[in-house]
Amino acid sequence: MFEEMFQHRKLNRSKLLAYGFKEVFDEYRYTTAVMNGNFILHVTVDASGKVNTSLIEQDTGEEYVLYKIKSASGGFIGDVKCVCQKALADIAEKCYDPDIFRWKQSKEIIEYIREQYHDELEFLWKKSPGNAVWRRKDTGKWYGVILTISRKKLGLPSDEIVEIIDLRLQPEIIREIVDGRRYFPGWHMNKKSWYTIILDNCVRTEEICKRIDESYLLAVK
User: Which residues pair with 28 in a beta bridge?
Assistant: First the structure.
């Protein structure tokens, strides 16, 4: 019942080990006392990142399974579920990286920025997990925004969900390149100084990387 908190996340093995997990054969194991030491929570993560848990009563050494049953209710059971959920949410946050953007070109762009500028995506909006930004370390200014939206929001005749990138550029150049096919007015940004590209290989990755470099230089105070 805790699987949803690990959705759209990718296991980071170095973070897992730093957190306190121990590597045993082809899986990682972690234990922690909960409920004032009355229970021991065992967490096992396999190589694919799948999480399994067991909760052992200290006094009896037996497994307590009611916390895994959605329909189980009651004050004590609710407290146990809440404690386990909090422990697993902490593991998801500190040992897994966001894995929202699945398109091949999106991954290429993310990797390019990581290698070129050593910047990681910042997920600023909990209510919009499909939106993230890159910002310069020296100025704090955004130079790229990556989002998931429907094509229809870009004026295209489709409800397909796509991954897009917003970048900065001089207004006069934006007016020249925006064509409604390869380049679009900046989605959710100032359309005078931002424009949008769908990351579906309609624009080559090499060209987008050059555009990212231009945007980076414009992200100054």
Answer: 23, 45
In 10 A of CB 143, how many CB atoms? 24
Instruction: Tell me which H or E stretch contains 135.
Output: strand 131-135
Q: At what angle do helices 104-117 and 205-218 cross, to 10 degrees?
A: 40
The tens digit of pLDDT for each residue in 137-175 reads: 999 999 999 999 999 999 999 999 999 999 999 999 999
CB atoms within 10 A of CB 100: 19
pTM score of the predicted model: 0.70
Domains and CATH numbers, the chain: 3-98 (no CATH), 104-218 (3.90.1150.30)
The H-assigned helical ranges of the chain are: 13-19, 75-95, 104-117, 171-177, 205-218
Tokens of 195: 């424009």
203 pLDDT above the threshold of 90 = yes
pLDDT value, residue 221: 74
- In degrees, rounded to 5, the angle at the alpha carbon of residue 54 between the alpha carbons of residues 49 and 59 is 155
